[in-house]
Amino acid sequence: PGQSKAGSLPAAMKTGTTIVGLVYKDGVVLGADTRATGGSEVCDTNCEKIHYIAPNIYCCGAGTAADTEKTTELISSQMELLRMNMGGAQSRLATACTLLKRMLFRYQGQIGAALVLGGCDANGPHIYQIYPHGSTAKLPYTTMGSGSLAAMSVFETGWSEDMSEGDAVELVKRAILAGIFNDLGSGSNVDTCVIRTDGTVTTDRGAVKPNDVAPLRARINRSRLMTITPGTTAVLKTTFTPARAGVTLADVTVTAMET
Amino acid sequence: MATNAMAHPLQSIMMEHDGKSAETRHLRPGEVSTGTTIMAVAFDGGVVLGADSRVSTGTYVANRTSDKIAQLHDRIWCCRSGSAADTQALTDYVKHYLGQLAVETGRVPTVKIAAHLMRRLCYENKDMLMAGVIVAGWDPVDGGSVYNIPLGGTCIKMPFAIGGSGSTYIYGLVDSDFRDGMGKEEALALVKMSVSHAMARDGGSGGIIRTLTVTEEQNVREYIPGDKLPFGP
Predict the structure, then answer these.
(1) pLDDT tens track for A213-235
(2) pLDDT tens profile A22-65
(3) Looking at residue B192, what DSSP letter applies?
(4) End-to-end CA distance of chain A
(5) Which of B36, B87, B91, B213 is catalytic?
(6) Measured on CA atoms in the order B103, B113, B130, B77, is the torsion positive or negative?
(7) Least CB-CB distance to A133: which of B31, B60, B63?
(8) How does DSSP assign A151-167, residue by residue?
(9) Contact B196, B57 (CB under 8 A)
(10) Closest by Cβ to A149, choosing from B32, B60, B63
């Protein structure tokens, strides 16, 4: 993918992307498209851009796909260790934001991760935007990625303080759709994630699928020879052997310790 | 290169200005800049800090309501201009050092110390940073003080300081309107009016005006919405 002549490396897989996040009355809503590109080719038509950080914190990622994936995984792991060390206290957004920004600044922009961090903690619902060079801003609503301008135009006309959940999710969907249809780097489906102040989280993968190819493919008349139903070849015998037999104490020889 | 036969003898060493300001010239692609107009004025009993709220990546406004006035200690603040990432990191370092110093010495750090800590970081890392800051605040030793730390890491104590890409448009204005011995209200009015004028002419500045008045007793934050500026649009 992305090769223009023999011997040149394929372009790194980037999430062209439209990602958004907003604060509403009872929490935050995050949204993302699902297209991943390598140069001008679409590498993945249904990739997941909303990453888990903590039970109450999720993060949308734009930029280099590997960087967003691994950076969020790393910080998620650090947050879990922190929860273990701090007696199970719920993670806070400011902690995740600081961990992310310190790492990104250290790498001086070489890690191409532009993130929208969102969630609810003891201080309420929050949305942060984090740039690859390590600058952050705390905002009531934000958009990032190549489709951010299209999505921001939807937010700037539609957002108001203390929206209901229904309105908020609708607005997020419309913003991502604006990116999908008006930005070449974004496409396929809309994913959403609602994180509420009462602690519940609803992730909706494929909340809107305006570019679904399944109905089109279903209309193709394939010859009966192309579809082979199970049972066409007779099954004579079925056996199942687990790959590794369970190890028990009976299999272990115990030798006394030399004292 | 000029091909004019009447070219000035110094033409060959005159550099043509490409229109970019010092703050935006060396930004790497994709780096977020606080385009900015920042200002601080000392008055008898404290200081007033002021800033616009625009943060841009290239020609897109990444954040139109940012807060460029950052707290370093109880009564010591700084205005940030240049790279958003660099200035946020610098502010975090100096805030950390000052907090540690306050605990170790048991006294309130002075604005001079804060400014010099900032200057050390800016000067010694000047090849890797794009940061122009104004450190201002109140302390019991010197009262209200303003220190300007432009690109490169100079640190100069001044009665008032302006910085950022928008400051170039208001040098004449503040030079003529500033007077020694101003009171709090006059200083605040000067800051609001000057930042308005800069925002009107500089593309890199805009949004709202945030001000902060620091005195011994308290810090008072105010903001003026973009449609209520003293001088528009």
Answers:
(1) 989 988 888 887 788 888 889 99
(2) 999 999 999 999 999 988 899 999 999 999 999 999 999 999 99
(3) H
(4) 63
(5) B36
(6) positive
(7) B31
(8) HHHHHHHH--TT--HHH
(9) no
(10) B60
* Residue that the structure tokens 């993670």 belong to: A91
Most B-contacting residue of A127, A133, A138, A155 (CB-CB within 10 A), to test interface = A133
Residues 6+ apart with CB under 8 A from A237: none
- The region, left, alpha or beta by phi > 0 then psi within -120 to 50, assigned to residue B219 is beta
Helix (H, G, I), strand (E, B) or coil at B48: strand
Question: What count of CB pairs under 8 Å joins A to B?
Answer: 47
Structure token digits, residue B129? 């940073």
- Amino acid (one-letter) located at A231: G
The C-alpha R_g of chain B, in whole angstroms, comes to 18
Q: What is the pTM of this model?
A: 0.84
Q: Cβ-count burial of B128 within 10 angstroms (0-12 exposed, 13-18 middle, 19+ buried)?
A: exposed
Q: Tens of pLDDT along chain B (233 residues)?
A: 444 555 555 555 555 555 455 555 566 666 777 679 999 999 999 999 999 999 988 888 999 999 999 999 999 999 999 999 999 999 999 999 999 999 999 999 999 999 999 999 999 999 999 999 999 999 999 999 999 999 999 999 999 999 999 999 999 999 999 999 999 999 999 999 999 999 999 999 999 999 999 999 999 999 999 899 988 76
Task: Identify whether B59 is a catalytic site residue.
Answer: no
CA A222 → CA A212, A231, A232, distances in Å? 19, 20, 18
For residue B99, what are its two tokens? 């907090």
Q: What are phi and psi of B42, to 5 degrees?
A: -90, 140
User: Token pair for residue B32?
Assistant: 């977020």
Two tokens at B9? 């003898």
In 3D, which of B207, B206, B208 has the Cα closest to residue B223? B208
Residue A169 sits at φ, ψ, to 5 deg, of -65, -40
